[in-house]
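Next comes this protein.

***
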Amino acid sequence: MTRVNTADLAFGLFLMAVAAVALYLIAELPMGSTSRMGPGYVPRALAVMIALIGAFIAGRALFAAGEAFPDIAWRPILLVGAAVGMFGLLLPRLGLAGTAFMVVLVAGSASKDMRWRELLLIAALLSTFAVLLFVKALGLPMPIWPVV
């Protein structure tokens, strides 16, 4: 046991960082007043609330006994992140069917208890569903198959 709950401290600091970035990005928007709200009023209020919640969580973590910060599982973070990047890179080249299939394979392999047979079936079903939903039902103009 450590004296500081490091997981809560890290989460509180993360929330405060998100709020700081949000406040920086909306700094140019006029605030307005309570009776005549400007476009920056609600985003600024939400960012301040997030910062206060983060400060509360981080402050509470300093006085609560906790466990050491858990090990970070890098494999899922990297593979799911790679799958998101792959979608943007492969869609123009492989079409929706091939891209969805590959993205599901990469993201699904992030799990330690993954079985290839099941993953291939899920990838086929999800890529078929994506084509039926986005191209056929919604009529989005994207290629289904690889562009030659």
